[in-house]
UniProtKB/TrEMBL annotation:
The lineage of its organism: Bacteria, Pseudomonadati, Bacteroidota, Flavobacteriia, Flavobacteriales. Residues 186-307 form the OmpA-like domain. Keywords: Coiled coil, Membrane. This is OmpA family protein. The keyword Nuclease does not apply. CDD domains: OmpA_C-like. It comes from the Bacteria.
Amino acid sequence: MFKKTSILIVIAFTLNACVSKKVYQELETKFNKLRASNTALIEEKDQLLVSKKALEEDFEKLQNEYAALENQNKSLNDEYIALQNKYKNLDESYTVLATQSSKKLAEQSKKNQELLVQLEEKERKLVMESERLENLQKELNKRSEQIDELQALIDAKEAQMQHLKNAISSALHNFEGKGLTVVHKNGKIYVSMENKLLFNSGSWAVGTEGKKAVEQLASVLSENTDINVLIEGHTDNVPYRGSTLIDNWDLSVKRATAIVRILENKGVNPTQITAAGRSEFVPIDSNKTLEGKAKNRRIEIILAPNLDEISKLLKE
């Protein structure tokens, strides 16, 4: 609902030739919130990866502890068997000495009793260690299942994003090398479109070729409803000279929302989409050359997987 409201506000903004400072500040505040939300999603993914690493470390620690306990249990078991043999030998000696003096018999009986006490104590420890090993094994199995499930979800998301990247590259192959690139990195897909493909200088009206490229992208995104779509508008450092907008901030937002409208009109669920303007402040090349400025004037479409399932698993 918040995103729909943001789009309605921007549309209202487009229909007015001049915008009051208050309205602009409200739009800027909402943009900052959207950018914070995007940052939170990225941080959430990083936290998920940290959680996975912590689980793997914990699992390895438990495995080491389990191995140590197994060795300890084996040692106790060996001691127990040795004491049994010793007890057996003493018991046989006791039978032989039964005919000897009562003093020797009493001494032997006392030793036998001490050995029986030791045997009972060792047996008690063996039972306790066996129970501890059993509980530890259950915990190891549980952690292993949790790690396997988490890894399966992460692998599935990565495979989904690779499949999406292939579908996008296939849909936009006619435009790659003409101001459009598709890159899969850090679990996300980055579709970058230079302004020469989309807009005329100082304009936010999408040209024919640019619109065709965005519509072909929309045909893929409309079939992937669990993908979050962030549209970022970028400019170079040349100040905006027109009279309709205030500055490059306004221009970058207008260009981002122009792309949003095309995606929405072609069936992409608006709840998936976030529009953001980055002005001149995230360049990918130097603004000291014409070539660098051309690269900086662009639309970045960042596609990220929905991580709700992974978050739910971690909370469990």
